[in-house]
Design brief:
It is found in: Nucleus. Belongs to the cysteine synthase/cystathionine beta-synthase family. Belongs to the TFB2 family. It comes from Thalassiosira oceanica. Component of the general transcription and DNA repair factor IIH (TFIIH) core complex which is involved in general and transcription-coupled nucleotide excision repair (NER) of damaged DNA. This is Multifunctional fusion protein. By secondary structure, the chain is of the alpha/beta class. It is built from 13 helices and ten strands. The chain has a six-stranded mixed sheet with strand order 1-2-10-7-8-9. Strands 5-4-3-6 form a four-stranded parallel sheet, sandwiched between helices. Helix 9 links the parallel strand 7 and strand 8. Helix 4 crosses helix 5, helix 4 crosses helix 8 and helix 8 crosses helix 9. The longest helix is centred in the middle third of the chain and has 18 residues. The structure holds 4'-deoxy-4'-aminopyridoxal-5'-phosphate. The site of 4'-deoxy-4'-aminopyridoxal-5'-phosphate (PMP) has 20 residues, from helix 9. 4'-deoxy-4'-aminopyridoxal-5'-phosphate binds next to helix 9.
């Protein structure tokens, strides 16, 4: 008892301010968010010069590559911005009532996670419909955030999940259920025009010359470019899509190369040309094969940057852009959309998974000592 009392006195003592009353009044703690959604945005840039060098790009001409680390959002992806913005927008339009409204969305990806976490914070129910092929890991993430997960047959793919979402809303009392529709929602592009674009502009002091972004819904590429191009009309926008599914290239009048079909870059190449995508603002489309994306994602992990597969695709495309003569002296900024731990079921990690599973207990190693 006595030692507990002594400890509490000591703790109290250590908090006791040792400054004058005047200073005490002007002190305040900083960098505190009042709720999780306040943590969305304001992501930093990371210097990716090391990747250029390891890929043999001649950087003596002054080319610079930076990545915008959307992987550092509160739920680890660029979709955190979209989830907050679509819900803020629906709230502003008076469409949502805490404790009553049900957000229904056909998504298995990062959008589902973003919607689930904001819905949880704000007191809305969230139902996510997705094909049964989605990993248990992914279902667990959504269910841990309080969302209800409804699986649809794999044969009906994404359209099946959308049909199911509509069916669920139709079965709810009038006005209770809402589908926010990320591929059509104007709040998607707007959030990137109002936050991601201005952040890049400010953090590069307006020196950005080339912007490289993947296309899922097209929200990021459209919004960022719509903010920066009026300020710097010669900034170039490069969109990235899976080589196995070159729909944006085709929509821009380009040729598809190689075999078209399924790809392994989650978050990109949704199999449609999204309504919110600003096709005209894109200057070039660079296709990246799923294997190339995984190779680069692996390389990013190897420099200590755990990112997802689409980040690999985008950095691979940005590296190709940096290799060109025209990139001399240019600043290239690319998006790193998500954190890597979310993709452990991707084949990229199968070797590590096997190695981790077959680890055997070893005797303690000798202490590591690198002194002379
Ligand atoms: N990569 C990942 C991992 C994503 O989740 C998304 C969003 N679907 C994107 C890239 C593409 O972003 P956007 O939808 O803004 O085009």
């Amino acid at each position: 008892l006595r030692s507990a009392a002594t400890a509490s006195v000591r703790i109290f003592g250590s908090y006791k301010p040792q400054v004058s009353l005047h200073l005490q009044q002007t002190r305040s703690i900083v960098n505190v968010a009042s709720r999780p959604s306040d943590l969305v945005g304001n992501t930093p840039l990371i210097d990716l010069q090391k990747i250029l060098k390891s890929r043999g790009v001649d950087v003596s001409n002054g080319v610079k590559l930076y990545g915008k680390l959307e992987s550092l959002g509160p739920c680890s992806s660029v979709k955190d911005r979209l989830g907050r913005s679509m819900i803020d927008d629906a709230e502003a339009k008076g469409l949502l009532t805490p404790g009553e409204s049900v957000l229904v969305e056909p998504t298995s990806g990062n959008t589902g996670i973003a919607l689930a976490f904001i819905a949880r914070e704000r007191g809305y129910k969230c139902i996510l419909t997705m094909p049964e092929t989605m990993s248990v890991e992914r279902r667990m993430m959504l269910m841990s955030l309080g969302a209800e997960v409804v699986l649809t047959p794999k044969e009906t793919a994404v359209p099946g999940a959308l049909a199911k979402a509509k069916e669920i809303v139709a079965g709810l009392p009038e006005g209770k259920g809402i589908i926010l529709q990320q591929f059509e929602n104007e709040a998607n592009v707007r959030i990137h025009r109002e936050t991601t674009g201005p952040e890049i502009w400010k953090d590069t002091d307006g020196l950005i010359d080339i912007f490289v972004s993947g296309v899922g819904t097209g929200g990021t590429v459209s919004g960022v470019s719509q903010f920066i191009k009026p300020l710097k009309p010669d900034m170039k926008t490069v969109a990235v899509e899976p080589m196995e599914q070159m729909l944006i290239t085709a929509a821009k009048g380009g040729e598809k190369i190689g075999e078209q079909g399924p790809h392994k870059i989650q978050g990109m190449g949704a199999g449609l040309v999204p309504a919110v995508l600003d096709l005209d603002i894109i200057d070039e489309v660079v296709p990246i094969h799923s294997d190339e994306a995984a190779d680069m994602a692996n390389e990013l992990w190897m420099i200590g940057l755990p990112v997802g597969i689409s980040s690999g695709a985008i950095v691979a495309a940005a590296t190709k852009v940096c290799e060109r003569d025209e990139a001399a002296g240019k600043m290239v900024v690319c998006v790193i959309p998500s954190f890597g731990e979310r993709y452990f079921t991707h084949p990229m990690f199968s070797e590590i998974k096997n190695a981790a599973e077959s680890l055997e207990k070893q005797p303690l190693p000798e202490p590591f000592d690198n002194r002379e």
